[in-house]
Amino acid sequence: MSFWLQYLNGKLDSSSRLNDNQFPITKRDVIAGNTKTYEQGFNATTRVADGYEEFKNYLKQQAEDFKKNAVQVIKDYGPKAMELLYKGSGPYKDGVPQSYPDISIENMLNTAREELQKVRSKTIARPELTPQFLEFITRAGLTQWKGDFKSAIQHEVKQKIIEKILEPDGAWEKQLINPIKDFINQCKRFADSLETLSNFYKSAGSSLDAQSYEQFRDASQTGNCVNLCDNANVYGWVKENIQRKINAIHLNDVKQNIVNSFIENTVDWVSDVEGKTRKVFDEVMAKVVNLEAELVAQRQLH
Fold this sequence. Notes:
The chain is mostly helical and 302 residues long. It has helices at 3-16, 27-32, 36-40, 44-77, 80-87, 105-121, 131-140, 143-165, 171-204, 213-219, 232-248, 251-264, 266-269, 276-301; strands at residues 89-93, 96-99. The protein is elongated.
């Protein structure tokens, strides 16, 4: 089901719904064209103002819900997945990127805007006072006329709400599109930061993958590596303790903590300040390692 049908269409209906009209009107009033007072009884102007605020706040909530729902996607598939979902892109096949327009978030948003514009351009005319209609009024009473008249006024309210929502730099852009686009860009930068940090620490710790102290000593002279072990015994002790730390860490906990940190401290993760992203990454990893160590110690005590 589309974003328009599942979320926006129903909310637009409720935001433009008119209350029952308490003003009386008779057949004679309708036939004479005295419908202004009855029309005012719908308080359409107030409904436009209130309905606009309701729909605007709903758009804002949709953007916030989008970010919340993205957490699990990022944890399971990485932040790069959000960029791919937004564009409806997939991996390359035979040198050509795969395209999935049906699941593209960008396409869903564009389609929803197009549907709003269709409602805005659609005309639901007020009942015309033709001779045939006046004859119908005389025979059938006011019920049909009242229903048609209210439907027309309600549609006009809906159109005015949409007009305000879709104004240039209006609520559609400010409350929904821009926040989602900004978040997608942040996810892209988050992915780039994680890749950079991963490469850095892979280089920094690569010497500990050595099978002997001699290999470790030689490897630690290159790249980002620093040799803090001056003999084989120290090297063995360091490697054993590091491996114990690694074994105590649960990967899902690492992923969850990193994603939570990104959501809570997005500015730090996408910062251009040198060392800022690495600092927040190190803090998250230190927290995870220490927490796991505490859990292991508690289990040993019991």
